[in-house]
Design brief:
Residues 57-127 bind DNA. By secondary structure, this protein is mainly alpha-helical. The protein has helices at residues 26-30, 42-46, 63-77, 86-99, 102-122, 137-158; strands spanning 3-8, 11-16.
Length: 160
């Protein structure tokens, strides 16, 4: 059973087991459970991306991103791996993630918690603040053109 039930204020609240990060042994991070195959060492999985051009710190790695990184490493290690673009790799890894057993998801959730701790140590003042996307002139023009076509269609429909 992957959930621990805890009684709080006379009601049961389900707490997933991966939130008990303090009780996780570091040996479990290094030795994955049965059913989890790693394509690279855990330290490489948890390391930040080397392709970052910006000086701004990136967000910590979530479980799916870690799973996808491992998926790419497993594909590269396979003797006959098909040439796939990033979109196809993401699509296939997402399908594998959806069909993965709970043990695999809990392990990558645990790795994500460790990555989050390391991120907090490396970038203590970091706070994720998403920015609103700016609309480019071409996107604005395309949106106005679409609205214009709809309004012309309504005008024709009313005058029939």
């Amino acid at each position: 059973m992957s959930e621990i039930h805890k009684v709080m204020s006379n009601r049961k609240v389900a707490i997933p087991s991966y939130y008990k990060m303090e009780q996780i042994d570091s040996a479990l991070l290094l030795e994955p459970p049965i059913g989890v195959t790693l394509g690279m060492p855990v330290e490489s999985l948890l390391a930040p991306s080397r392709r970052c051009r910006s000086t701004h710190p990136r967000r910590h790695l979530n479980p799916f991103i870690l799973f996808r990184r491992n998926f790419v490493a497993l594909l590269a290690a396979h003797p006959v791996h098909p040439k796939m673009g990033p979109f196809e790799v993401t699509r296939r890894s997402a399908n594998e993630w959806r069909n993965a057993p709970p043990v695999v998801k809990e392990y990558f959730q645990m790795l994500s918690g460790e990555a989050n701790k390391r991120h907090a140590i490396n970038y203590p003042p970091f706070m994720y603040a998403p920015r609103k996307r700016r609309i480019t002139k071409s996107a604005f023009a395309a949106n106005m053109d679409r609205k214009r076509k709809v309004s012309i269609g309504l005008f024709k429909w009313r005058n029939i």
